[in-house]
Amino acid sequence: MLRFILIVLYLILYLILSLPVLFVEWIIGKSNPRLKADSSKAIVGWGFRCIGHIAGTKLIVKGQENIPRDTAVLYVSNHRSFFDIVLTLSCFPNVTGYVAKKEMDRAPILRLWMRNIHCLFLDRKNIKEGLKTILKGVDEVKNGYSLCIFPEGTRNKVNDTFLPFHEGSFKIAEKGGVPIVPMTLVNTASVFEDHLPKVKKSTVIIDFGAPVYPGQLDKETRKNLGSHVSGIIKDRYFKLKEEYSEVLQ
């Protein structure tokens, strides 16, 4: 329980003290939007690493060499924990925004930092607004900003299972002409969700798979791209659980 309290206090203090920094970032963005995005990503990434340290989380990061460096990408991942974003942001080599639920756009101060790193806010209940967000995502990747999306649509509440991947999420990569990088997260719920409200020391695996280029796939696979990528992540998930079974206990 102590770790949870410390994280909450740290987050509140971080957001309050970051207000002057946000003003500086706003000034930077007036003349150099790319520098603003890069510096904001570094600042938020540092803050998230501190939270991971307070939580006592040990990260095993694999496959970063699979991430293309010469183009924006769409990271696609399974989703099990609030900590999925906290733990993954610093693993991305370039500025990467998350496709988050629209409710996050109401979070004071935090939403400003999310916008600075090009996060998008998705209304899953409004098809028209959801389509607009996907089209914004296409523009973002075309402009060189990577995105990370959790196509299950919500946090899966059952360990070792996967919800269906929504096919619409993959239009960002298809229409934006960028590769999909399957990202497999293992054991993130052990940090918090498996024993609410306690935060416990855990080992978490973040694995980046080989990029998938939609344009190089056959017509049938492209039609079921969500199932295809989900299958890649599922297969990797259970292999990693077996490979690291001793450290994940």
Question: What does it look like?
Answer:
This protein has a seven-stranded mixed sheet with strand order 1-7-6-2-5-3-4, sandwiched between helices. It has about 250 residues and is of the alpha/beta class. It is globular and about 50 Å long. Helices cover about 45% and strands about 15% of the residues. α1 (about 1-15) runs antiparallel to α3 (about 35-55) and α2 packs antiparallel against α3 (about 35-55). It has helices spanning about 1-15, 20-30, 35-55, 85-90, 110-115, 125-140, 170-175, 220-225, 225-245, and strands at about 55-60, 75, 95-100, 120, 145-150, 180-185, 200-210. The longest helix has 23 residues, at about 35-55. It contains nine helices and seven strands.
Order of adjacent strands in the largest pleated sheet: 1-7-6-2-5-3-4
Summarize the amount of helix as a percent range.
Answer: 40-55%
* Count of helical regions: 9
- State mean pLDDT (0 to 100 scale): 94
Shape: globular
What's the Cα radius of gyration?
18 Å
Question: What is the compact description of this entry?
Answer:
The protein contains 9 helices and 7 strands, in the order αααββαβαβαβαββαα. The chain is of the alpha/beta class and 249 residues long.
Keywords, separated by commas or semicolons:
globular; alpha/beta; seven-stranded mixed β-sheet; 9 helices
